[in-house]
Amino acid sequence: MALPHAQSGQIVSVRPLGERLPDTPTAAILKAGQLEVMRVVLPVGKSMKEHQAPGEATVLCIEGVVEFASEDGTQRLHAGDFVHLAPRALHSLKAIEPASLLVTMCLKAAVG
User: Which of 5-14, 72-81, 92-101 is predicted with the least confidence, judged by mean pLDDT?
Assistant: First the structure.
């Protein structure tokens, strides 16, 4: 059963999961006309193969350590680290430690 998405004005916690991380699935928090926000949960060794978003995207590491690969090379994201991606920027993720991430995606590329 899918979890309901957040409604306008609703407060949603994205605090670290701590001990609950291994039992928490990745979940969409919000999906609106042009915006999608997800909490991505990655156990150690789990990865997201190379992919892209149609519009701009951001990744905020809430907890853990993730290897973030893009055309600029491979970097490690630690708790509190944030990265912005241009539209259609190829990237991949791999958990070095159990991790949760707040991912924000623009579902449409900017016109103009």
Answer: 5-14
**Per-residue confidence (pLDDT) for residue 1, from 0 to 100:** 44
Q: Is the dihedral of CA 81, 86, 87, 92 positive or negative?
A: negative
- Alpha carbon 23 to its chain's center: 17
* Cα–Cα distance, 5 to 16 (Å, whole number): 19
SS3 of 108, please?
coil
pLDDT for 45-89, tens place per residue? Answer: 999 999 999 999 999 999 999 999 999 999 999 999 999 999 999
Number of C-beta neighbours around residue 12 at 10 A: 11
**CATH classification (class only), 28-103:** mainly beta
Mean pLDDT of the chain: 93
Q: How many residues does the chain have?
A: 112
DSSP states of 14-56: ----GGGGGG---EEEEE-SSEEEEEEEE-TT-EEEEE--SS-
96: which 2 tokens?
Answer: 């070095």
